[in-house]
Write a structure and sequence with these properties.
13 strands, five-stranded antiparallel β-sheet, 457 residues, four-stranded parallel β-sheet
Length: 457
């Protein structure tokens, strides 16, 4: 008899850390497939493999650099359910998208201005009140706060943008914080939450910058705000970074389906998805509220190794007719999540990063003439005009930089292609940090060499 369970596929991408493993879906009786996207010109092959393996549900996070490609892939696979959906992953791509998402659903965020025309940013910054926060918009991660900058006056802001060339220019009001709180949710239920506090006299809360963390007494108002955001995103799993300002107000700083999590939390997500996809045939996980206060007492080195933590639901004994019922779990129940038909955030409207172009300062790229057929060339150059580089010419240019070898260049082309590398060097060089082993000093050498060759007169 044919199984009524859907065929699960795990979505992987070369060079990207894997969030899920088959072991996160302990007990799933059917074979779980894996499908790996190899970047570059791999879209058609990837779609064909998903169809050949007859996958019904494709599970995995998509990094910012592949998000728009997977919008196209999802449209080509209308009968495949992506978990999380591409709409749920809208906030993964950029901080700009986080802002659009929060504004649509009336979720509190710091006042934010976004500029695609540099002159408009300069006019705003010249008259703005300070301090301000300027961030790299692209991608959900701050890389330990490295791409988040506090500027105290217009001169500092202009100098920062001249050095970093962030595009678009993403500016927020600086909010003095007591701390921020990371909340992780599964089925819109908080399953882990912890404080991140800045070191004395500092403002960044990242632990890599000296911040501290603890799990005790996270306010329910913070959990409720994170649950509101999760429900708005229709996300099977979700994380929010929420600032508690010195003014007592809560504001969302970040939110996404891509976040760091201990293995046992990924196991809980797997248990939840098995319950969700099996129409209740698998056990619905019970995850007690505030479990993190007790688990957080365990040394983190041990927490990183703990797997498949199960909780039984307590039923109190009674010898009278009256029974006290704790309402906490009813305030934050573990909820199912139904597929959403259609697209809430279609790229034709919301992909400002690619739809808006500054023609005056762009150094465009071209594919190698004669190497590709017309269909392939059209796909690669769909948002590029002009002709300056072949692949061989751009590789040769990059290899002129001291310390940049063939392996790194091949990785760059695998991740971004010709047009993507040129786009990043024109507008947002820090996208290239996605390349393995490409660190700050080497990136600075690449950018300096690029500017020597092509800086506008």
């Amino acid at each position: 008899m044919k199984s009524s369970l859907p065929k699960i596929g795990l979505l992987y991408l070369d060079y990207v850390l894997r969030f899920f493993d088959k072991s996160n879906f302990k007990g799933w009786p059917e074979k779980i497939e894996t499908v790996t996207y190899h970047w570059g010109k791999d879209k058609a092959r990837f779609i064909a493999e998903v169809k050949r393996k007859k996958i019904d549900v494709l599970i995995g996070n998509i990094p910012a650099t592949a998000y728009e490609t997977f919008r196209e892939i999802a449209r080509a696979l209308p009968h495949v359910r992506f978990l999380p959906s591409l709409d749920s992953q809208f906030s993964n791509k950029s901080k700009e998208n986080v802002t659009h998402f929060c504004h649509k659903y009336d979720l509190p965020v710091p006042h934010t201005e976004i500029f695609y025309i540099p002159e408009n940013a300069e006019r705003y910054l010249a008259k703005a009140t300070y301090p301000k926060i300027i961030k790299r918009s692209y991608g959900p991660s701050n890389y330990g706060g490295y791409f988040v900058h506090k500027v105290d006056n217009a001169k500092e802001a202009m100098a920062l943008l001249q050095e970093r060339k962030y595009y678009p220019v993403y500016v927020q009001d600086f909010v003095p914080m007591e701390a921020d709180i990371r909340v992780m949710l599964i089925g819109h239920k908080p399953v882990c939450a912890f404080w991140r506090r800045p070191p004395e006299g500092e403002w960044l809360t990242n632990t890599s910058q000296g911040g501290s963390m603890d799990y005790q007494d996270v306010p329910k108002s913070v959990l409720a705000l994170a649950a509101r955001a999760s429900k708005a995103a229709k996300a099977e799993y979700w994380a929010c970074d929420i600032a508690l300002g010195k003014d007592g107000k809560l504001r969302i700083l970040e939110c996404a389906t891509a976040f760091a999590a201990f293995p046992y939390i990924r196991d809980w997500i797997g248990q939840y998805l098995m319950w969700l996809l099996s129409d209740g045939k698998f056990r619905k996980p019970f995850i007690p509220l505030f479990n993190w206060e007790e688990l957080g007492k365990i040394d983190s080195s041990l927490l990183r190794t703990m797997r498949h933590i199960y909780f039984g639901q307590y039923t109190p004994s009674q010898d009278v007719g009256d029974q006290f019922v704790d309402m906490d779990e009813q305030q934050f129940p573990l909820l199912s999540n139904s597929p959403f038909n259609g697209e809430e955030w279609p790229s034709e409207h919301w992909n400002f990063q690619d739809n808006f172009r500054l023609s005056a300062k762009v150094i465009p790229a071209k594919a190698v003439q004669g190497m590709l057929d017309a269909d392939e060339s059209g796909e690669i150059l769909s948002n590029v005009s002009g002709a300056e580089f072949s692949e061989a010419e751009l590789k040769s240019l990059l290899l002129e930089v001291k310390g940049v070898g063939n392996k790194m260049v091949e990785d760059m082309f695998g991740l971004f292609g010709v047009a993507g590398i040129v786009e990043a060097l024109n507008h947002d060089p820090y996208r290239l940090c996605e390349v393995p082993n490409l660190k700050q000093k080497k990136l600075e050498k690449i950018v300096a060499h690029w500017r020597e060759q092509f800086a506008p007169a």
